[in-house]
Amino acid sequence: MGKVKQILIMIFILLAVSGASSVDQLHKWRKSMSSGASSSSGVSRVGSSVIFQLYGNVYPNGFYFVQVFVGHPPRPYFLDPDTGSDLTWLQCDAPCVRCTKGFHPLYRPTNDLVVCRDPLCASLHSSDYRCDDNPEQCDYMVEYADGGSSLGVLVNDLFTLNLTSGVRIFPRLTLGCGYDQLPGVSDHPLDGVLGLGKGKSSIVSQLSDQRVVKNVVGQCLSGKGGYLFLGEDVYDSSRITWTPMSRDHTKHYAAGSAEFFFDGKSTGIKNLNVIFDSGSSYTYFNSQIYHSLISSIKKGLSRKLREATDDRTLPFCWKREKPFESIRDVNKYFKPLALRFPNGRKAKPQFEIPPEAYLIISSKGNACLGILNGTDIGLDNLNMIGDISMQNKMLIYDNEKQAIGWTAANCDQPPSSNRATL
Question: Which pTM value belongs to this model?
Answer without folding.
Answer: 0.87
